[in-house]
Amino acid sequence: APASNSTAHWRHLDAAHHLHPFSNTKSLNAEGVRVITHAAGSYIFDSEGNKILDGMSGLWCSSVGHGRHDIVDAISDQLKTLDYYNTFFKTTHPAAAELAAAIAEVAPAGMRHVFFTSGGSEAVDTVIRMVRHYWAAMGKPEKHIFIARRNAYHGSTVGGASLGGMKPMHAQGGLPIPGIVHVQQPYWWAEGGDMTPEAFGLHAAREVARAIDEAGAENVAAFIGEPIQGAGGVVIPPATYWPEVQKICRERDVLLVSDEVICGFGRTGEWFGCQYMGVAPDLITFAKGVTSGYFPLGGVIVGARVAEGFIEHGGEFNHGFTYSGHPGGCAAALANLRILHGEKLVERVKSEIGPYLQARWLKLAEHPLVGEARMVGLIGALELTPDKARRAKFAQEEGTVGLLCRDISFSEGLVMRAVRDGMILAPPFTLSFAEADLLADTAVRVLDRTYAELQARGWL
Ligand SMILES: Cc1ncc(COP(=O)(O)O)c(CNc2cccc(C(=O)O)c2)c1O
C-alpha cells in the first residue's frame, strides 16, 4: 500500500470516495487529481513538490495571500472562547455584531445592515427571499420577477443557478425556477459586433429596459448583476453600461442588486465594484474575499430603502441558516478586514500593484495569439483568437484552446483559469512587484508555447 502521505495514497482515497464540484468524476479519476498540500503568500504547493503561482487567489478569494497566521489565530482564539452559537431566537455573539458594524463601515453610504450566510450562493438565495418579502411588505407582492444576464454566475443553489445565465447549469435540474428573465450581457468582445464599446454598453443596458417593460414594471422586483462578470470570463462592461442600467431601474422602481461575491472587498481597487462602476445598489451580496477564504462566510449588505421597509413593515422574516453569523467566519472576517485596513491593500490594488500588473497585462495584446487584454484592479482576462481584426473564434470546439493554454500555464508554474478560449486572472492583493513580473513573463512564455502548439497542430 502506498505511504500514507503520498500522492498515490491521497489519489486513491479521493478517487474512491470524493465527488468533486463542477467535475466529470470519471475523467478526473482517469487523469489523476492534483493534490494541493500547502500554500504560502502568493504560492500553492502540490504533493509532488511543485511550487505554483496562485494567479487565481484560489477561487477569487485569497485576497491577503496564503499562510496568514494572524487570521488563523483569530479563528482559533474565537473557537476556543465560543465554538458555536446561533443568531436565531433573540441571541447574538460579539463577533457577529462587531463584523456587521465593520462591514457597514466600509460599505457604500447608507448601506448599514448585514444578513450573514455561509457562502455566496446562500447570499444570492437570501436576496431572492428578502427582496420578494420586501415588496410584499410594501403591498406589492406582484413585484416578484428578477432580471439577470445570460452567462452571469450567481452561484449553484437552485436560486443562484436560476439567476445565473449558464445553460449547462440550467440543463441539469430543470432550471431556472419561475420568475426569472435573462437579458444580453455587456460582453463587447463576443457580442459587440460593429458597435463601439460605448454604444454597445448602452445597447446592452437598454435590453434591461425592454425586458422590464415586456414583463410589466409592476411585476418586476429587481435587477441583479455582477459589476464585472467573473466566472463568465471577466466580462468588464463598457463604462456606459451600469449608469444606464441604474437609470432604467430607478425610472421603473426596480431594485438594483450588485452581486459582489468576486468584486467585493477590494478586488477592483474600490471596496466594492459598484463604486468602480459608479452606481449605488439597494443590496450587495458578498463572500470569498470577506475572509480571504480562511473560513466560509457570505452575506447580504442591505441599503436604507430595503432595510427600513423590511424592519418597519416586514415582521418576522422566515429565513436563515444554522451557520448564519458563525463565530469562526466572523472572527476570520474581522481579522481579514484588519489586514485590508492595516496594510492599505485596497489602495494598493487601486494605485500600486494593480496599475503595475495592468501595464504588463495590457501589453500582452501585442502577442499574435491575443485579441484583447483587459484588467480592472486585480481582475483580468485575455481573449485568444486566430484573427484579431475579426475577433474570430477558433475552428475547434470552443474551450479547446483555452484548456490547452491553461494546462501549459500550470506546467509553467502559474495558475490561470480558462473560460471558453480566454484566460482569466485574479491574483492576491499582496502580490509583490517581482511576482507580478514573474507572472507576466510566464504568461508570455505560456502564450508562445500555446501558439507554437496550435501551429504544430495546424490550427492557426
Ligand atoms: C458572482 C458570484 N455570485 C455567487 C457565487 C456563489 O458563491 P459560492 O460558491 O460561495 O456559493 C459566486 C462564486 N463564484 C465561483 C464559484 C466557484 C468557481 C468559480 C469559477 O470561476 O470557477 C466561481 C460568484 O462568483
**How many H/I helices?**
18
Average pLDDT confidence is: 97
Major sheet details: 7 strands, mixed
Low-pLDDT runs: none
Briefly note the structural class of the backbone.
Answer: alpha/beta
* Rg for CA atoms: 22 Å
| Cα end-to-end separation | 47 Å
> How are the strands of the largest sheet arranged?
4-10-9-8-7-5-6
The coarse overall form would be globular
User: How large is the share of residues in beta strands?
Assistant: 15-25%
- Indicate the percent of residues in helices: 40-55%
Number of strands: 14
Bound molecules: 3-[O-phosphonopyridoxyl]--amino-benzoic acid
Structure at a glance:
By secondary structure, the protein is of the alpha/beta class. It is 43% helix and 15% strand. 3-[O-phosphonopyridoxyl]--amino-benzoic acid (PXG) binds next to helix 6.
Features:
15% strand, binds 3-[O-phosphonopyridoxyl]--amino-benzoic acid, 14 strands, globular, seven-stranded mixed β-sheet, 18 helices, alpha/beta, 460 residues, four-stranded antiparallel β-sheet
Written overview of the protein:
- Helix 6 (120-137) packs across helix 13, helix 10 packs parallel to helix 11 and helix 16 (353-363) runs parallel beside helix 18 (433-456).
- The longest helix is centred in the last third of the chain and has 24 residues, at 433-456.
- This protein has 18 helices and 14 strands.
- Strand 8 (255-259), helix 12 and strand 9 (283-286) form a beta-alpha-beta unit.
- It has helices at residues 7-17, 25-31, 57-60, 69-81, 94-106, 120-137, 158-163, 167-171, 188-191, 197-215, 241-251, 273-277, 304-313, 327-342, 345-351, 353-363, 400-411, 433-456, and strands at residues 36-40, 43-46, 51-53, 111-117, 145-149, 180-183, 220-225, 255-259, 283-286, 298-303, 370-376, 379-384, 417-419, 422-425.
- Helix content is 43%, strand content 15%.
- With 460 residues, it is α/β, with parallel strands linked by helices.
- 3-[O-phosphonopyridoxyl]--amino-benzoic acid binds at residues 59, 119-121, 124, 153-155, 160, 226, 230-231, 259, 261-262, 287, 298.
